[in-house]
Amino acid sequence: MVCPHWLSCILYNPLRKTSTDRLAVLEQSRIGKNSVVLEIGAGNGFFTEVLAERAAFVHAVELQQGMVKKLRQRLGALAAKVNILQEDISRHDPGQSVADVAFLYYVFHEVDDQDGGSRHIVNAVKPGGFVVLYEPTVEVSRRKMDLSVRIFEQLGMVLEERKDGLFTRFARLRKVSA
Fold first, then answer.
1. Confidence (pLDDT) at 7
2. Which residue range(s) make up the domain with 60?
3. pLDDT tier at 18 (50, 70, 90 boundaries)?
4. Of 156, 98, 121, which is closest to residue 40 (Cα–Cα)?
5. Angle CA(115)–CA(141)–CA(118) in degrees, nearest 5?
6. Is 40 among the domain residues?
């Protein structure tokens, strides 16, 4: 279930900020100062703001108008480094080779058409770039995460790292060809 915009306080709050090492997540995702990032499910900006601080540019895709409004308010001076698209990744193709990293944090399990969405995501990643998936263990079983990884592998992505933690499942896949 997609978190409604009126409940966005659960996505961005002091407890989550202190319990989530966002910079460590960006390191694990291979996001650096020269990275162009395609963020799927930007929500109200919990990761978008640190992505914009660290990366060269962010294409933030968000489905809900209410979340987009909150995201715009949160970004302030960082807004110049973020292109916000109110779209469904299943139906919107961001373009070919526009990002070094596609960043999906607790969102892929909510994409209705995962096959369509994954095709658009892989198309948007440059050769040598990454798709990184983070999913909540409470909602996504190991089997379901493996199925998500397989969807991307069938599109030519190669699994580089896969971890299951107490709260989060993680996979980083590399695009090896165009």
1. 45
2. 32-175
3. low
4. 121
5. 15
6. yes
